[in-house]
Amino acid sequence: MARTNYKRYFWNDEAKKQGKSELAAAVALLLTCGDFEHGGEVYGCAADRQQASIVFDVAVDMVEQSPALKARFKPVHSQKRLIYKPLGSFYQVLFAEAYTKHGLNVHGVVFDELHAQPNRRLYDVMTHGSGDARKQPLYFLITTAGNDQHSICYEVHQNAL
């Protein structure tokens, strides 16, 4: 049986404090446990660890507030990782050192504040070639305003129109 692979992208460029982080955390949890992807690897990316941790921390709060999720997820705070025990899948924080990210088997990426990326390397590593072994990878891209017309954020925004 042939496997049909396609990549899905979601673009959200709303103003600050409109609930992007909460939506992204819910999507990260859904990809980790609701897609039923055994060993699914979901990554939260941003320009730095503090920014990438924002969505992760919201996801941890969501898990803590749900007895059903709390019983099935194991948080590993030192690694900024949430493990979904029934499927062996996880949600993990990554940040800008792209040279260390090759070879990941990505099921989903939540990319926070794309406009703040210092260059396009992490975006390219996470979206080009990654997810090829997965049935339905999702790239969930969120950002606030940016004005650099030579950035990866501007390029992705133009392609989303």
TrEMBL record:
InterPro entries: P-loop_NTPase, TerL_ATPase, Terminase_largesu-like. Pfam families: TerL_ATPase (PF03354). Coiled coil: none annotated. Residues 14-157 form the Terminase large subunit-like ATPase domain. This is Terminase large subunit-like ATPase domain-containing protein.
